[in-house]
Amino acid sequence: MSSSAGSNFLGRGNNSGSSTMRGLVQFIADLRNARARELEEKRINKELANIRSVAFMRLSVDMELTDYKLQTEIQGYDPHMRL
Length: 83
Known about the structure:
The protein is mainly α. The protein contains 2 helices and no strands. Mean pLDDT is 75; it is low at 1-13.
């Protein structure tokens, strides 16, 4: 096994992985405990909205970083150049 200490599945740290799994376990428990199909669908839609918002935030951060990198390259700035 070539796994580093302090990381788990997919290379995530202990805190991130455990909170992710806890969220997944809670989601599954919510679905199992739903008394009606409408409540299941409502919980699924809530989780999908959460996933979309997280994905959108990551996309916007990536776009900001790409814009910054492009601007610095256009201006001729080399971050590796020593003065």
